[in-house]
Amino acid sequence: MKKRLVSSILTLSMVAIAMTGCGSSDSGKTETTTAAVTDNGGSESSAAKEEPAGDAQVVTFWYNNTGDEAKIYEDAIAAYNASQSKYKVEGLSVTDGQKMIVAMSSNEAPDVIKHGNQTVIQYAMNGLVEPLESYVKAENFDLSIYSDQAVNANRVDGDLYALPLDAYTIQMYYNKTLLKEAGYTEPPKTMEEMYEMAVKATKADGNGNIDVLGYPLFPYASARQELIYGFGGRWWDEDSNLTPDNQGILDSLNMNVKFREEFGGKALDSFIGTANTNRYTEQDMFFQGKQLFRLDGSWLPTMMANFNSTVDYGITLVPGTEAHPEYRGVSRFETDSIAITSMSSNKDGAWDFTKWLCSAEGAKIINLGTGNLPAIKFLYDDPEILAVPGFAEFIDALKEEKGVQYPQMSDYDEYMNLVNSALDTVYSGKMTPEDAMRSLKEQSAGLE
Fold it and tell me: Which one of 126, 155, 311, 424 has the lowest number of neighbouring Cβ atoms within 10 Å?
């Protein structure tokens, strides 16, 4: 697929740069930590780059975390600063995406940024972050400390643009009590087994209202991704060509439709709507014992403990299919990533901090503090990492190296809007999966 270098959001931001004189004005709200001081409407990075006491060179680091997580990043910064005297990193929490883009395109750019790998890829496609190959080769830096999928998640056309800090994937939770009541002692290994269990476990009242949901239709993103990946379906191929009509997608959607016909689309939509409203609260449907299966992330056990949920749960790999058991464990895969900006005024210092933060020492501070999975393979066996509830099972999934990564395309957001609209027509019964995906292929033909 031919790739445009500038996505629509970046194009709008470039217009903003021209209109604001390279980022001199502040039109958005930015959250900050005590690591930097701002005036009303002034530039955070200007304050952050004030010379420190002594001879240490300043390195500015912008991250998009707030609250308690921002404190974790400040703790990591303090540890790095204490480990050496050549550089002094000054951190700043910046959550305004356009503000970051404007700054990165000017002489007010931070030296180092932290963002999700998909965002970093967009920055790389627009020339806003520095390729790291020269740094890696100059020091013979060992990229093999990371999982292959974590490194590949930060490449564009073969070039590395960031180091992975942590990892993100989804797997299957199951309610052991509900599973036993349905007559099973082990979670499903295939989608066919999952469907059979889901039908037996789903409970409705006399009016047809769903009280317990067996099939993992919620959260929405997992029904659009992991349920489809388990059938071998992909919305795009490895070269970012769009493939909305492949057989795996159709097989997954037809199973989804079959379940909806069994229990009623309106009743299921009502349950899912309530579940979405209460997601990650004390009234979360899985926390309350009203979901048999839940496709979600590694943070769920900690949330359940915080809300005093008494559900007896287990964690297992996303099912494959009877025909393709090798699809078991396939899930989306992302990283939080650390990149050096192209306009950095201290690239040597930026690299020194980047490699430290993404080392076992720095990454472990972030992994334990934020509850994110490690991208460094050495930390897979770290006792403190494994002590975090749910991490052992999710690390087993990471070891499978079956992550599906996002495409390198400028029109990704537009494509996903079309995908969601097509899925709505399927779920509402307006179109068959085959017709909806055929239409989606036609609608998305011009996207890049």
Answer: 424
Residue 71 lies in a domain: yes
Query: Looking at the structure, do residues 176 and 106 belong to the same domain, yes or no?
Result: no
How many domains is the chain built from?
A: 2
Q: Domain range spanning residue 214?
A: 169-332+408-444
- Residue 178 in any domain: the answer is yes
179 and 266, same structural domain?
yes
* 253 lies in the same domain as 299: yes
Q: Do 115 and 97 belong to one domain?
A: yes
Ramachandran angles phi, psi of 129, nearest 5°: -125, 155
Q: Is 114 exposed, middle or buried (0-12, 13-18, 19+ CB in 10 A)?
A: buried
Q: Which helix (H) or strand (E) covers residue 117, if one does?
A: helix 117-125
The verdict on residue 388 lying in a domain is: no
Question: Do 122 and 353 contact (CB within 8 A), yes or no?
Answer: no
Per-position pLDDT tens, the chain of length 448: 333 333 333 443 433 333 333 333 333 323 333 333 333 333 333 333 444 456 899 999 999 999 999 999 999 999 999 999 999 999 999 999 999 999 999 999 999 999 999 999 989 989 999 999 999 999 999 999 999 999 999 999 899 999 999 999 999 999 999 999 999 999 999 999 999 999 999 999 999 999 999 999 999 899 899 999 999 999 999 889 999 999 999 999 999 999 999 999 999 999 999 999 999 999 999 999 999 999 999 999 999 999 999 999 999 999 999 999 999 999 999 999 999 999 999 999 999 999 999 999 999 999 999 999 999 999 999 999 999 999 999 999 999 999 999 888 888 889 999 999 999 999 999 999 999 999 999 999 999 8
The C-alpha atoms of residue 432 and residue 438 are separated, in whole angstroms, by 10
Q: Does the CA dihedral 213-214-219-225 come out positive or negative?
A: negative
- As beta bridge partners, residue 314 has 174
Are 252 and 233 in contact by the 8 Å Cβ rule? The answer is: yes
Q: Are residues 182 and 267 in the same domain?
A: yes
